[in-house]
Amino acid sequence: TLKVLDLNNINLCEEVGVQLAAAISANSLLEKLWLGDNQLGSSSAVIVNALKGITNLKELNLNDGNCSSDLAHGLASKVTSNKMIEKLYLRDNNLKSNGVIQIAKSLRNQSTLRIINFRSNQITYEAGEALASVISSNNRLEALYLSGNKLGSGAIKIATAIKSISTLKVLGL
Predict the structure, then answer these.
(1) Are 155 and 173 in contact (CB under 8 A)?
(2) What is the Cα–Cα distance from 155 to 131, expressed in whole angstroms?
(3) Are 34 and 59 in contact (CB under 8 A)?
(4) Each residue's pLDDT tens digit, 2-35
């Protein structure tokens, strides 16, 4: 049974992403899905939807996928139903504040999460406040990447929240 699917940086496009979703949904024991540095666009939402039956997913990498905020709702739903997720890489996806806030709400009760990467997603202080709430409720967080955004006063909320986390080793603001 397939446990790791690494398709990082192989020039996948939207059309292939839709076909890939069918293959992903057939692998219910998948633990790591790496699709970073591809141009998945709107097919990323189809791929995330295909993850619904996969409850063991520990790592999801959609870095630089040109996904947009359309991805956020499906991803928030997936993260809520999966209590195993440890690493979430969503750098450079144009999620914007609303998308990150949706995802952050689903991460509040996620006790296994160790790495969050929301670098360069056009997020502002509102998302910073939502992420501060996630940080405050997570005692396992080791790395948080948020550089390349316009967090403003949200960065202060995040800085306040991280004071209580002894596990945090990497912080990128």
Answers:
(1) yes
(2) 10
(3) yes
(4) 899 999 998 887 778 888 888 898 888 999 999 9
